[in-house]
């Protein structure tokens, strides 16, 4: 079992050396324009372009809640695009986060991180525009990557 560490910093520039896997949370509409994804896009176009392409081609792939796309963004950096929210937040009707989809995505992320020999770096996924609560997501992170011995660093920006 590994530990989840929380630090102040920017998850788009993860700490440490070697291969790293950056994780965030996507919606199932193909929208990319609020929250952490804006910071990712400032670092490079690959994650957004791959996500939008996958959404456009969803009739021929597994795009949907719980699915994860892995995008290589550099020699030692990968980004995981898990689909963990249904739609986007509009008004105060309901929150788009889907905890079961985040859990399914984290299982796939843990397996890929183990293959890569990479620690996981993330903001508090599902807690920004997705509207989730960290008290519900943190145990999922502990039950998936951390329980498999994958080091997880959670970044609080600012």
Structural class: alpha/beta
The N- and C-terminal alpha carbons lie at a distance of 29 Å
The radius of gyration computed from the alpha-carbon positions, rounded to a whole number of angstroms, is: 14 Å
Estimated share of beta-strand residues: 15-25%
Q: Sketch the major β-sheet.
A: 7 strands, mixed
Which assembly state applies to the chains in this document? single chain
Q: Report the total helices.
A: 4
- Let me know the number of strands: 7
- Order of SSEs: EEEHHEEHEHE
Averaged pLDDT: 94
Poorly predicted regions are: none
Helix share bin: 25-40%
General shape: globular
A few lines on this structure:
The chain is an alpha/beta fold and 158 residues long. The protein contains four helices and seven strands, in the order βββααββαβαβ.
Structure description:
With 158 residues, the protein is α/β, with parallel strands linked by helices. It is 30% helix and 22% strand. It is built from four helices and seven strands; from the N terminus they run E-E-E-H-H-E-E-H-E-H-E. The chain has helices at residues 36-43, 46-56, 99-116, 134-143; strands at 4-8, 20-23, 26-27, 68-74, 77-85, 120-122, 152-156. The relative contact order is 0.26.
Brief descriptors of the model:
158 residues; globular; alpha/beta; 7-stranded mixed sheet; 4 helices
Which helices and strands appear, and what pairs or packs with what?
Blueprint lengths: L3 E5 L11 E4 L2 E2 L8 H8 L2 H11 L11 E7 L2 E9 L13 H18 L3 E3 L11 H10 L8 E5 L2
């Amino acid at each position: 079992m590994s530990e989840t560490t929380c630090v102040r910093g920017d998850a788009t520039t993860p700490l440490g050396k070697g291969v790293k896997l950056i994780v965030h949370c996507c919606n199932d509409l193909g929208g990319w324009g609020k929250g952490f994804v804006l910071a990712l896009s400032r670092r490079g176009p690959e994650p957004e372009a791959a996500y939008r392409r996958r959404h456009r081609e969803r009739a021929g792939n597994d795009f949907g809640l719980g699915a994860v796309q892995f995008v290589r963004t550099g020699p030692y950096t990968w980004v995981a695009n898990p689909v963990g929210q249904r739609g986007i937040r509009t008004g105060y009707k309901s929150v788009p986060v889907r905890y079961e989809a985040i859990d399914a995505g984290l299982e796939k992320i843990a397996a890929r991180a183990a293959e890569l020999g990479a620690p996981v770096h993330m903001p508090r996924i599902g807690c920004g525009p997705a509207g989730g609560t960290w008290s519900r997501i943190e145990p999922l992170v502990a039950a998936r990557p951390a329980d498999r011995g994958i080091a997880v660093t959670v970044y609080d920006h600012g």
